[in-house]
Amino acid sequence: MSSDAYSGRGNKDRTITKTSEPGGGIPDTRAGTAKPAAGAHFLAGENMTGGYGATDILHDCTLTVDKGKIAVIVGPNGAGKSTAMKAVFGMLNLRGGRVVLDGEEITDLSPQDRVAKGMAFVPQTNNVFVSLSVEENLEMGAFLRKDDIRPTIEQVYELFPILKDKRRQPAGELSGGQRQQVAVGRALMTQPKLLMLDEPTAGVSPIVMDELFDRIIEVARTGISILMVEQNARQALEIADTGFVLVQGANAYTDTGQALLADPEVRRTFLGG
User: Fold this and answer.
1) β-strands 194-198, 119-122 pairing
2) Spatial distance between the Cα atoms of 124 and 116, rounded to a whole number of angstroms
3) Alpha-carbon gap, residue 232 to 62, rounded angstroms
């Protein structure tokens, strides 16, 4: 799906960056790495096979995301969606396949090293420090940075204004949707190139879900790539540039979000008709 398909979503005037760099995006001060060849995906988890112990959950699974685009992973319960996300982030040892980010193979890197390369991961649960304030949570997200983090905190507050109002409040006292905003904001404090979200709208109301999706669109507009696992498949595919339907740890369908929504078999099997 082209970005025009969600041109009516999100707030184009509110961004998470004030940089003058071409193409936008939070300024990235990391050492340069080899750039991908023309036509290559910004992220590619290629032919990933692996699992826990001796049991493989993923079977030759491939996920890709382009620069500044939104890729969504959907599928039935137990399909391996979150496992695929963890494999990309280095939380699961692969027995086959590889992971490439921005032209550099990172298959053997630890999760912390992947953060340094530009990945940020927001897990579904236990994703905030409940005893710390909102602002302290954001500061924790910048643990690898050596520069002034205050401009990025202000950018997060522009994206999620309610967090500025509650910046001194313990995160544990917030609503579920507000906690998710804190979790996403903390991940953005790392100045990521790729933002990974595992079930970001789990347990929130439809109104909060739509608001979170709008904010995700705004993040993508700054040039940050998004890889997201989502239980609300229909709504997620509406904003997806690329959709991956997983079944038993393998790719069942891969297409644009709009094409998957229009596919009768996908609708019947995975979207409730």
Assistant:
1) parallel
2) 21
3) 21
Distance CA 44, CA 129 (A): 31
Cβ-based neighbour number of residue 251 at 10 Å: 18
CA distance 260 to 233: 10
Dist. CA 78–CA 94, nearest whole Å:
18
What confidence score (pLDDT) does residue 2 get?
A: 42
What 3-state DSSP class applies to 137? helix
Residue 28's identity, in one-letter code, is D
* CA–CA separation, 12 and 4 (whole Å): 13
Single-letter residue type at 152: T
Alpha-carbon torsion, ordered 24, 27, 29, 32, to 10 deg: -10
Identify which of 157, 218, 222, 161 has the alpha carbon closest to the alpha carbon of residue 20: 222
In this predicted model, what pLDDT tens digit does every residue of 1-29 receive, in sequence order? 444 445 555 554 444 543 334 334 444 43
**Backbone CA torsion sign across 41, 42, 43, 46:** positive
CATH topology of domain 42-117+236-273: Rossmann fold (3.40.50)
How many Cβ atoms sit within 10 Å of the Cβ of residue 55? Answer: 7
SS3 122: strand
- Return d(Cα 151, Cα 111) in angstroms, integer: 26
pTM of the model: 0.86
**Phi, psi (5° rounding) for residue 195?**
-110, 125
CA separation, residue 209 to residues 62, 157, 180, 232, 265 (Å): 27, 19, 10, 9, 26
Burial class of residue 197 in the structure, from the number of CB atoms within 10 Å of its CB (0-12 exposed, 13-18 middle, 19+ buried): buried
